[in-house]
Amino acid sequence: MCARCRDIDTHYHYYATGDRYNTDHDCSWENGLVCTSDVNGKTCKDYEVNFKCPNIGTCPACAKWTPWMDRDNPSGNGDAEHVGPTGFNPCSGHEPIDIQCRVTGTNQPWDQTGQVIKVKCTSSEGFVCENSDQPSGEFCKDYEVRFLCP
């Protein structure tokens, strides 16, 4: 299952609005999206959250994980593992059910690297780490993704 969070007026994705979100409540299906003025430092925008449940019919075994894919390297602006026209189309025209993201060549999950991540491993958007967001001039690690396809 995945969540899509966006500004209700502009339909910009939540991460593109400039608001800051409460820890562990930044558009996940487990915790949703929480933006408070205490954390944001100003009034938060009005957001809508949509949840997408996987529809794999009566055959859950029919869903398959793709191989791990690494489209981009962290040179330049960072590492972008996008989904859609500018990135992967892993499920033959169907929307992916789920995504997993990790450091390339390891089993280290993306959310345990300590890096600042711009697009946080969603099946609808993919994964993006920007070098300019990292502290002390560090560069993004090289990430890879895989998708659960119906």
From TrEMBL:
Note the coiled coil stretches, chain numbering.
none
Q: Name one Pfam family in it.
A: Mucin2_WxxW
List UniProt keywords, sorted A-Z: Glycoprotein, Secreted, Signal
Q: InterPro entries of this UniProt entry?
A: CILP1/CILP2, WxxW_domain
* Residue stretches making up the WxxW domain: 2-53, 65-149
Gene Ontology CC: one annotated term: extracellular region
Localization per Swiss-Prot or TrEMBL: Secreted
Q: Which PANTHER family match?
A: CARTILAGE INTERMEDIATE LAYER PROTEIN CLIP
- Put simply, this protein is called Cartilage intermediate layer protein 1-like
| The organism of origin for this protein | Lingula anatina
Which taxonomic lineage is given here? Eukaryota, Metazoa, Spiralia, Lophotrochozoa, Brachiopoda
Q: Which gene encodes it?
A: LOC106166468
